[in-house]
């Protein structure tokens, strides 16, 4: 509970205009991109500096007020829904690019910077920040770091974690910690930098990050391949890798996704195809040319019924349309779209897609699957209606079985969306009780009063999707 | 203290032949590669399985017996010296390569596998495990993971941390935890995998690791460039990167190292040169060719007095000789060689080398510097004699100033050797008290009885190099 006295103290720290608690603002920050989760915060605070973050956290810690740090709220695991009230901390006042260092190939940013802004700036200098989560046009880098966001280029270039090399963050007790720097190598103690990446706002608040950049690939080419059966598409993925080619993008859509996309966008996909692969390679022009020729050959050997190689950027854009439309095409079908991210070893893609189809049939729920075939990160997507409690029960059960199937295939419950509230009931499935226990003890070491994003990751009584609050 | 009763329990777990406590064996495991640190363990234990590791740790935890997990003891920070006695745990019975998975580009290994064995096997299949610490011919992968070992290819390919994607480890309480897997993406909870990497045996014992592999680069070329002055060499490094080329190797030797190497190996280096760069590029043949031509041009523009481009593997081997001999040439000068690894942003190399030279002069100690210029990871190396207490006092003071200079330039106290005992007095210089405190609380969360490699990383009363035990 935020008393008038505490409210005044917050205002003394951040200024009147940066403490908001109108009903309108509380409503705006009561939910994120995750369907069916909503809970009002007590206030929304926009600190202007690391020192203000420190003071706010100290005050919250003293009074045991929950703090939910939030970027643009694009996460899909209810990670930024303030399920226990308290304050939502936003970073519109800490949204500057502090330095682009072309000698050391680093960029130093505040948490509120939009990811796309980073890309635009560094690409204008011939540099490259590879992580490209689907929401990058609106998501913040702080949110990306807290969620360890992935994207379409993970196979070749890795994910957000692989590019964060320095950090400033504030602990719940107000302590300010700086780790790493513009350094390719640093082994001074435990890797706090990577521990913070993907910690979903449960350990502290990031106030600055230094990101590693690489030279921008000179060329890029695109192929779209259509298959009559799933196994041929999966085998194509394996054969490309077996030929020592790591494409930048290796995306997959199943039959159900193909049909919805074709109906929506009329891009000329054969609706009897069981699978489509969208494959892109980047790098030096000669290498891209050679790789694309080899990939085309492999697709044909694997009986692709159609292989389109883009001759230029325009054609490439056309080929990628289908994959880019996947989510929007699905989302228009029914009121609620639940996008999951069960992930398996690359070799198990065909098996997980078959398993998803069987599970969808068993529970009589519509699930279409698309995703990042190259890194086994699948997005089974259910179009449903949260108001239909009976169907939502079945949706929840279906996803439980999908997570279980992924784990049995050597996979995980979440490849890039995070645990948040949505996956917390399943965390022990992946990590066992001993794994969850040691994570809880890390949480306790950082945040003994449990003020940082409480109820996420380990929630004891986590509600599942089926119960509407 | 290991009583007869406890000894019998250890023997019941691992078998008589895997529990050794003769004076000879205790002496053998009383030191590692770090000069001037020695302390006898009470026993040496070789578990044969994860279950045995778990039972041994449980027993040690119950009786508060220190456990020092050890690979081949090649570390340079006294990280595996059993300074508080207890047991040294070795992995000669857990040294199998469990699986090479060519579909998922992973290799799964036990901790006792020699790093070179991994390289040999994967390269025979056209694959590549990039981390190449100097000691890789004898070091174990378990040791590499615990130290987050670097090497010469860090600039382009990263370090050990970047290749560990799955792990099985045992906590001090005996709990067995499995994380990650053959997965490019996994965000199920905190990143325990990367927290364990570089934890120097202070959090638990690794019993299995899954490593990511990449396709082996097809081609490789080598350049040696000689400079009359340090700044030109440093500017060459910057200009190569500014031209969007990331070489696989970008090694540096200063004048003092050049002179010693030349005297030792007679490779024809001009001893009045202030710096030598050894530059290698790998990748697709066309790209390597183009990059090497551009690098040659940059070296000449930066007034290199000599630029040798190897025409074939034999010539390349010849050029790399000088750099490979650096440590051995220095080590023969005097009884004790202290090899450090202060690390700075790439742009600050010239400044740190100048600073090192001034500091060496100030304290009248011989320090030569070579190292990984591309990633700012310098190896100031002092040839001295531990029996000369007066000189050792000055050596310690010189290194203190070097660490301080590195930090002031935005660097760190250790780029790849770890904290161990040697760097523990300086950890707070890099991380501040708040950074060290949160690391200590992580340690406490994992290991409340402080049995795992006690006295390392945070040692309260850490002795410095000068005091002979």
TrEMBL record, chains A, B:
PROSITE patterns: FAD_PCMH (PS51387)
GO cellular component terms given for this protein: glycolate oxidase complex
GO MF annotation: an example: (S)-2-hydroxy-acid oxidase activity
FAD-binding PCMH-type domain boundaries: 37-216
Entry cofactors: FAD
Keyword Flavoprotein annotated: yes
UniProt key word Oxidoreductase: yes
Annotated keywords: FAD, Flavoprotein, Oxidoreductase
Range of residues in the leader sequence: none
InterPro entries per record: FAD-bd_oxidored_4_C, FAD-bd_PCMH, FAD-bd_PCMH-like_sf, FAD-bd_PCMH_sub2, FAD-linked_Oxase-like_C, FAD-linked_OxidoTrans_Type4, GlcD, Oxid_FAD_bind_N
Domain of life: Bacteria
One Pfam family hit: FAD_binding_4
Entry similarity comment: Belongs to the FAD-binding oxidoreductase/transferase type 4 family.
Cross-referenced NCBIfam families: glcD
Protein known as: Glycolate oxidase subunit GlcD
